[in-house]
């Protein structure tokens, strides 16, 4: 397929940068060519973009998409003044345990389709609403085909003591779940897992060949970011409450800071200051954190608008963080950019530039989503 007449083409490629009046060729599910003077007869199908912008498909590197039920009443109570706590997770755990595999899969498919319609072409999901060995294992199995993270250490379920549950997570549960995941995550927070438990669980995961990512410093300042850097985690997620030492540690590491403004929106918490991170040279990703408790959205354009308005990112930085940043957080070099050889995952916007994603908040600007070179 040859697409011409692209008003602004964001490649995220260090050499190509952002092109104007550009063209791109997709072949065999990959980008075959990109530039400003299209080769003759490059493809069977020709699409005139009519001056619209083309960006890489969004790479949503943080989601909790395997669950049943919803928590609209908890959200409404919060908006009436009740605080957000990790305890709400247990409501979804009960609903998830009671659901069949088919129900979990149907809900997951619905969310992945919803995400695709808003331009997300790569999706990560965690387990973490099962919290028994069989429920965690099936949560990962139903998500086959997505990026998968084992989050048995989401909270301690009501039937366990913290120590016996930590032993289960890093023992038999990890043994059963590791074959179905690439990543291991721990919610390191008061009311969830402390520093010692977090280290022990992540170390056991590394031993099994999983790569760590950490829910860090979400509700208050804590040790999560330092542990993430120490264990060379792919990403420290949330990063809402950071000290200067946390920022230094991130800046001197390969750990990506994944910011999740949907969670601050839905918990009415203060937003992290992305400017501080970017100015220090930290790699930043933006993700939706879709889950029924703290951020029930799959919509990265909404997160981009929040990041620009509330987290002091420029529109260009926010779009980059939701594409290339997400790819870095998942250690993927085939997505998040549009140079020759990359996956042909891209979004044609109903706007001349990606700035409009923040400039026109809430407006449906997704014109066409390409996944593996095909229109989806
Ligand atoms: O990323 N922080 C931990 N986990 C989720 C929230 C889960 C829930 O409230 O159900 C998050 O925000
Ligand atoms: Fe999360």
Question: What does this entry look like structurally?
Answer:
With 376 residues, this protein is an alpha/beta fold. It folds into 2 domains: 2-56 and 336-375, Roll (Urease, subunit C, domain 1), CATH 2.30.40.10; 58-329, TIM Barrel (Alpha-Beta Barrel), CATH 3.20.20.140. The chain has helices spanning 72-79, 89-98, 101-117, 133-141, 162-177, 195-207, 224-230, 244-251, 261-267, 274-279, 300-310, 315-329, 356-359, and strands at residues 2-10, 18-27, 30-35, 46-48, 53-56, 58-60, 120-126, 147-153, 183-188, 211-216, 235-238, 256-259, 284-286, 346-349, 366-371, 374-375. The strands form 2 sheets. Strands 1, 2, 3, 4, 5, 14, 15 and 16 form an 8-stranded mixed sheet that branches. Strands 6-7-8-9-10-11-12-13 form an 8-stranded parallel sheet. Helix 4 runs parallel beside helix 5 and helix 5 packs parallel to helix 6. The longest helix has 17 residues, at 101-117. It is globular. It starts with a strand and ends with a strand. It binds N-(iminomethyl)-L-glutamic acid and fe (iii) ion. Fe (iii) ion binds at residues 62, 64, 215, 289.
